[in-house]
Specification:
Elements lengths: L8 H11 L6 H11 L5 H10 L1 H18 L1
Helix pairs in contact: 2-4, 3-4
């Protein structure tokens, strides 16, 4: 399986909610935002290693947008 960097909110949302079948609930979004905000966590440091810091920032923005849409 090859990995690709998602470059838009719509692609990211499709990947998470439809392709992976992960519901974007308030709890899930909040938990991921907390994890992504802490680069000392293994999962976050690994994310940065694989995808890069710029992509982490984009993903944080997309989770923040999803959080606003859920409000």
């Amino acid at each position: 399986m090859s990995l690709r960097v998602l470059d838009s909110y719509d692609d990211w949302r499709q990947c998470i909610a439809v392709d992976c079948g992960i519901p974007l609930t308030k709890a899930f979004v909040r938990r991921r935002l907390e994890e992504l905000a802490n680069p000392r966590l293994h999962t976050t440091s690994r994310f940065i290693e694989v995808w890069g810091e710029a992509h982490r920032q984009r993903v944080i923005e997309w989770f923040e947008r999803a959080e606003r849409e859920l409000a």
